[in-house]
Amino acid sequence: ARTMIEPIAAERIARARSRKVALRELESLISAQEDAIEDPEAFGLANSAFHVRLVALAGNQTLEIVAEMLHEIVARAVTAVSREANGMGSLATRRRGIRSQRRLLELIEAGDGDAAEAHWRAHMQVVGKVMVGQDAATVVDLRHY
Questions:
Q1: How far is 30 from 11, CA to CA, in rounded Å?
Q2: Which pLDDT tens digit goes with each residue over 11-28?
Q3: Would you say residue 2 has pLDDT above 90?
Q4: pLDDT band (50, 70, 90) for residue 131
Q5: Can you tell me the distance from the alpha carbon of 45 to that of 72, in angstroms, rounded to the nearest whole number?
Q6: Contacts for 20 with CB less than 8 Å, ≥ 6 apart
Q7: Rounded CA gap, 79 and 118, in Å?
Q8: How do residues 36-68 score in pLDDT, each as one tens digit?
């Protein structure tokens, strides 16, 4: 669901006149993730907050509600994956995710909606593989976290 929703939100924010306000808020949420990067629980919550707010800043209240509904599932899954010391949940993986978020902010700042959407779609596809892992058949499997 997030892979479908968030790239569209990124595109809308990049095209918005108010994108500078959104950028400041998203930057603050990235900083919160950096502050929490070594604590899987805190990082899971901070990461999920970034994703929820990204959708909210796009201005569609219905999609914002959907993103908020996914928040707890996502926070738990990110926390569980972040607890893995090696591999997909490693500190290096979390840092790569933050770098990708910063790249998204660059595209939004440039007002490049198409590039922001494409970048975030690719990011979310990678995140989906990290979150669901090789053993999970469907997103429903995230409930186990």
A1: 18
A2: 999 999 999 999 999 999
A3: no
A4: confident
A5: 8
A6: 109
A7: 26
A8: 999 988 998 899 899 999 999 999 999 999 988
Closest CA to 117 of 43, 64, 58: 58
- Rounded Cα distance, 13 and 8, in Å: 9
Question: Burial of 61 by CB count in 10 Å (0-12 exposed, 13-18 middle, 19+ buried)?
Answer: exposed
CB proximity list for 13: less than 8 A, separation 6 or greater? 19, 22, 54, 57, 58, 108, 116
> Amino acid letter at 139?
V
Residue 5 sits at the vertex; the CA angle it makes with 47 and 118, to the nearest 5 degrees, is 90
Which ranges constitute the DSSP H helices of the chain? Answer: 2-15, 19-35, 40-57, 61-82, 91-109, 113-132
Over the stretch 82-122, which tens digit does the pLDDT of each residue have? 777 555 567 888 899 999 999 999 999 999 999 999 999 99
Q: Give CA torsion, residues 20, 28, 121, 48, to 10 deg.
A: -140
Which has the closest alpha carbon to 75: 11, 24, 2?
2
